[in-house]
């Protein structure tokens, strides 16, 4: 009896995960013009040559993504001229989810100055961890973040 219950729970979890991935790729049936904000966001999504880039792929309605939004905005301003920090809503830009092989959100991808993927993380990432990852890639943190 326990084995059957375990299998039922495992099957339910697998189905839920599959439905979540499908939802990320299928949500947002609204059409966007090629010059709309979503396509502008996607166009700016490529790693900047000569600049370390953090690409955060999530969604405006995702709880962990919402929790990261103020952190990313703060770091985007603090690291201006040092590193590029970009957020892409994969529900509005499904092609970006496919391009980067996103299976769950949020996903953070760190690119070096050559545009090569160096690190990938799925889930919430706190400010200290982002700063440490950028520092490990040779990006000197702004004064207010040194010693974190």
UniProtKB/TrEMBL annotation:
InterPro entries: Thioredoxin-like_sf, Thioredoxin_domain. Residues 25-140 form the Thioredoxin domain. It comes from the Bacteria. The keyword Methyltransferase does not apply. The keyword Signal applies. GO terms for biological process: cell redox homeostasis. GO terms for cellular component: cytosol. GO terms for molecular function: protein-disulfide reductase activity. PROSITE patterns: THIOREDOXIN_2. Residues 1-23 form the signal peptide. Keywords: Signal. PANTHER family: GEO12009P1. This is Thioredoxin 1.
């Amino acid at each position: 009896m326990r084995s059957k219950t375990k299998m039922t729970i495992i099957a339910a979890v697998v189905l839920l995960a599959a439905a979540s991935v499908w939802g990320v790729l299928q949500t947002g049936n609204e059409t966007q013009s090629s010059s709309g904000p979503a396509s502008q966001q996607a166009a700016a999504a490529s790693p900047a040559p000569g600049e370390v880039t953090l690409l955060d792929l999530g969604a405006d309605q995702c709880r962990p993504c919402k929790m990261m939004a103020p952190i990313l905005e703060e770091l985007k301003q603090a690291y201006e001229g040092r590193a590029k920090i970009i957020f892409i809503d994969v529900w509005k830009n499904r092609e970006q989810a496919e391009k980067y092989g996103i299976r769950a959100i949020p996903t953070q991808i760190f690119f070096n100055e050559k545009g090569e993927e160096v690190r990938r993380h799925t889930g919430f990432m706190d400010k200290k961890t982002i700063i440490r990852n950028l520092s490990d890639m040779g990006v000197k943190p702004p004064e207010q973040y040194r010693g974190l």
